[in-house]
Specification:
mainly beta, Lipocalin, 8-stranded antiparallel beta barrel, globular
């Protein structure tokens, strides 16, 4: 009787362990990666119950292009190269932006950021002392957004807006 009771407890404990271990989410190194400039993707535990986190992030990986506009330079070309983490929520440091205008003005560089079901946010640099941040909203067929430059670049690039669609020109 004692052996069967011990065996029953061991089986129950084994099943309980399997349920607990089997239901734990799989994690990857990229999941622990931080989003744009030190904001962890899971920094706010209250976000897990918001509708935004229940909807998967947009699948925007790849090349997107369109137009960029600013007060001084007018309309030019915008190209984004989005590289998403395995869970799709992070734009990795391999992501890029490239803005060029007909008057030979340009801004380009690496960026990182976050992706949601409604768009993306990013931060990067267009050279030393030339930080840029911005965001785009839309869906997997097209997005519009803004970029704000700091440092020396803020003197040249003002009220920057862009409109992009998947694919490069």
């Amino acid at each position: 009787m004692k052996l069967s009771r011990t065996l029953g407890i061991a089986v129950c404990a084994g099943l309980l362990s399997a349920v607990v271990l089997g239901s734990s989410p799989r994690t990857f190194a990229q999941d622990a990666e931080e989003g744009a400039w030190g904001t962890a993707a899971t920094a706010n535990p209250d976000e897990s119950s918001s509708p935004e986190t229940q909807t998967p992030p947009l699948a925007i990986g790849g090349c997107w292009s369109g137009t960029v506009n600013d007060t001084a330079d007018g309309t030019g070309t915008a190209v984004f190269g989005f590289v998403q983490s395995s869970n799709g929520k992070i734009l990795t440091h391999s992501s890029t932006f490239n803005f060029t205008w007909p008057d030979q003005s340009f801004a380009h560089g690496a960026m990182k950021g976050t992706v949601t079901s409604k768009g993306f946010k990013f931060k990067g640099n267009a050279g030393k002392g030339c930080p840029v941040s911005g965001s785009g909203k839309g869906d997997e067929s097209g997005m519009t957004g803004t970029a704000k430059f700091g440092g020396e670049c803020a003197k040249f690039f003002k009220n920057v807006t862009f409109s992009i669609t998947p694919g490069c020109i």
